[in-house]
Amino acid sequence: MATIYNRLAGRDLGRIAALSDGIFAFAMTLLVLEIRIPERADVHSEAELWAGLVALAPRIVTWLMSLMTLGIFWLGQQTQLGHLARADRNLSWLYFVFLAVITAFPFSTRLLAEYFTFRVAFFIYWGNILLAGLALLACLIYEERAGLMREDVTPEVKHALGRRIVFAQALYAVGAALGLMDVAWGVGFIILVQLNYAIAPRLPFLYKV
Amino acid sequence: MATIYNRLAGRDLGRIAALSDGIFAFAMTLLVLEIRIPERADVHSEAELWAGLVALAPRIVTWLMSLMTLGIFWLGQQTQLGHLARADRNLSWLYFVFLAVITAFPFSTRLLAEYFTFRVAFFIYWGNILLAGLALLACLIYEERAGLMREDVTPEVKHALGRRIVFAQALYAVGAALGLMDVAWGVGFIILVQLNYAIAPRLPFLYKV
Amino acid sequence: MATIYNRLAGRDLGRIAALSDGIFAFAMTLLVLEIRIPERADVHSEAELWAGLVALAPRIVTWLMSLMTLGIFWLGQQTQLGHLARADRNLSWLYFVFLAVITAFPFSTRLLAEYFTFRVAFFIYWGNILLAGLALLACLIYEERAGLMREDVTPEVKHALGRRIVFAQALYAVGAALGLMDVAWGVGFIILVQLNYAIAPRLPFLYKV
Amino acid sequence: MATIYNRLAGRDLGRIAALSDGIFAFAMTLLVLEIRIPERADVHSEAELWAGLVALAPRIVTWLMSLMTLGIFWLGQQTQLGHLARADRNLSWLYFVFLAVITAFPFSTRLLAEYFTFRVAFFIYWGNILLAGLALLACLIYEERAGLMREDVTPEVKHALGRRIVFAQALYAVGAALGLMDVAWGVGFIILVQLNYAIAPRLPFLYKV
Fold first, then answer.
1. How many CB atoms lie within 10 A of CB D72?
2. Which pLDDT tens digit goes with each residue over C88-110?
3. Is A166 exposed, middle or buried (0-12, 13-18, 19+ CB in 10 A)?
4. CB neighbours (10 Å) of residue C20?
5. Of C43, C73, C65, which is closest to residue C55 (Cα–Cα)?
6. N or C: which terminus of chain A carries fewer CB neighbours within 10 A?
7. Does residue C58 belong to the interface with chain D, where contact is any CB pair within 8 Å?
8. Cα B143 from Cα D188, distance rounded (Å)
9. Which of C15, C20, C102, C182 is the best substitution to test chain D (most D C-beta atoms within 10 A)?
10. Smallest CA–CA distance from C6 into chain D, residue
11. pLDDT single digits (tens) D69-82
């Protein structure tokens, strides 16, 4: 009986992972559609095409930022799922909510790319990051309360998983505060935070969070 | 021989699950494309951008409703697949039909978002939900008749699986009747039914259905 | 050593299956985007919306036909993969070609939906079906020659797998011949062939092919 | 403990593979959307439709080239993943970068299709291939240094994996140099290189690289 239960639970975990990979794959690929190529009618020479591509810079910056956002959340969710022994219906719903928030990134990315200097666009983008973090945190809290984690997961690891989300969101909130003053500063700070997570995961201090 | 058969059957179950996850992932992510951002030429200030976003409310409501619809059917199908010991060619076809109905949601969602006050649009949306429920029920009935369920699935569980679909469709039908009078009431009722399924799965009465 | 080899081969089979499921899921969901909703500016009443939807009939017919086409090839490929013991690099390439042909269906479907009465559009659609069948047949022939099938697959089964593809393509070719006279007849015949494969797989005569 | 670790690592490998398959599936299917069908208003006869389709030739050539590019990288990554015993967080990030580069192909393909005779477009396309190759090479180097490969992978195999990437990129660089003179020559040479990899993997000389 226990065997069957575990098999089922494992299947559920697999379904969550599979839906997640599909959504991340699709959202990542959709992002590039926002980088529209220069209008054919406006371009008559190599130089004009190059100029048209350079003018895409804000969209390319937003694209790279969103790719990193998705990468960080993909890895974060993967790490969390990796500590689970099994899943249940409620957790499936919570991860579904997390994934629904992830599907909003192509929208918020497009908005920010089109309205790069607008605070409203920036805060909606930050709100998207915040919601994704909160959803992931809700999954984590539920996993602990419902006892879904593997037995070998120590309290230290559990604590570290939560602290990692809270710390990252605190850094993003600093970026949001900077964005209140100037959107470009806010975007720049968020990109720095992300590069930090992406490139320097071996620094002892940041590796822990 | 039995081993080979089971392995093959398991593989088929995996293929159904994988196709399903791909389709749900894609349909979920497509939905957000319906929330078009305000036209750049119409927006000259933060206030105008905010007003443009507030004007997207009907699309956002329809988006959230469709996300919940997809979530409910994703979980419903996952639960059903979780009770199977194996699949066969006919069942693959039946689930393919179910998934084809799911791929229609981006269409019916777009129609309802664009024609929010039109009864025709609302009934096509409801028809989409109805067809998805019927397809899932057809899968369930076939699974029982063809003896594809795991041996440890009791008659009570089988009964509960079917009752759950019929009960949900009955609630959606009430929503459709309300929509006959006023589309906003119909949409509101359907959202309440969905929130019920999504948020309150622990209430003893509803957990059973 | 043999164990490692089998594990690797199994992984390859899994990758082929996963790429296939992704492509079928995506192609299926893309198809519905071809059914564009009536222009908001043209619609002032429920009756006009209904009329606008009825005018979508050719697109809906083409959509259903393409869904069935994809379903038949999804199941056909699944059956073929189910008989394999392992895969190799060449087979991966052959299935990649098959999948590339599958990704062309959203194009040929769009073409046929837009140019429903044009022979050119119909023959490109039929050509897409033909290429998909030939690619699947090439996979099958290679599987036999390279000895990739499971040991318990009898010569009868191998023969049946090939005959199934050839027979179906022969029926599609009849549809193409009818389309030479009138496209509507050709489309109608192809839909009949597909319904046959989808709905009546238990008839002894057709089940064998 | 070792068992749990391996299981986790295997799960990570599975997640990388699943995300990859999703992204390749999606990118492949997106490519076909670039082949826009002739405008309905411009076409009044079968001959005009045929002429309109013939005019799509540059887009179809670019489409086929990109399909082959994706196929080659899909197989290349699959081969590399097949030699791994386990994955870690850093490797997940490196593959994420590789996949992000892959998601750029629909953009660079669209650019080349629209600006077929422009050197800028051709070099951005080549740059995309180069970046994909470098990312794959970075993954390979990290895998060796971090000791993530299976124990039965000999130094010869490791060397061959790296040489394969470097050799292919050298051939692409020749194509780029030819493109400096004439874009059509560059595209033609790259297609020849790809056909070589796709069709002739059994030639002793090329099979080794």
1. 20
2. 888 988 999 999 999 999 999 99
3. exposed
4. 26
5. C43
6. N
7. no
8. 54
9. C15
10. D82
11. 999 999 889 888 88
